Amino acid sequence: MRMSKLKKCLYLINLMERKGAMTLKEINECYQYSSLYEGDEFQPRTFLRYKDFIEETFPCYLEFNARTGKYELHRHRALYGEDDSLYDYLLSAYHIEGMTELALKHRNKIMLTEAPTGVENVQIILEAIDKKKGIECEYYSFNKQSHKHHLLIPYFLRTWEQRWYLVAEPDNHHHGQSVFALERMDDIKLTVEKMLPSSDIDIEDYFDGCFGINHSDDQKPEIIRIKAINTQAEYINALPIHESQKKVEETDEWTIFEYRMVPCYNLYQKLLWYREKIEVLSPPSVREEMKEILRKMVENY
Fold first, then answer.
1. Cβ count near 111 (within 10 Å)
2. Which of 66, 200, 246, 301 is most deeply buried (CB count within 10 A of its CB)?
3. Which CATH number covers residue 71?
């Protein structure tokens, strides 16, 4: 019963995200063409129950506009702010739950990249953040090829390149934060006592201008411009390299994009992914670093 209600609520959310505000009559007219339709239109009282379920379960809610006579879909800005990424991520999770039965039935018709690793540790870390407690864990270091016991005060969680990461303050020093991959954390336990971070920095400030999970207190974001041939520019438009991406110039042959980022290893790796189809224009330091990387690569051949 709950799965049926979940699927119908997902249908309503998808429908209203595509169509905008709708009357109950308009919703039922569309619903007749849904695979979920079994001759059972949304009756007013039943629809109100779905409306309540959406507000209780999803990061959005339906609101009736008495002036237009239509229902409107809104996001929980008070809970999720202006950044839509968490809303989209949570809604995506509900979509996955809603299609589980069909996905398993037709698993030979679906090919996926790996799900973000470390997700099994997200819940306990969020619990630690919620209860203002620290966590103890065994953490595996690739560099040292060994496990080490850590006592950490969690700050933020972030996904990047199919991995979950935790930004935390190691308890053995109070002068900064470190990044930990959740997939390499074992035997996680909450501390009995409360443990508060020594800094009140928020996640937006911490990752300001960062590319991925790289963070540096010593470097400041720079304005970086790249030129892409237009066959590649269309893909960059559709999937931006960074959230700061802006299109500043365009011709029939190429497009110039501008970013506000801190140059880092992962950024150069990303730029090299586009091969000869992009060119770094500025600043000179980033352009020269790209040239040096390419020179060393040529030497390998």
1. 6
2. 246
3. 1.10.10
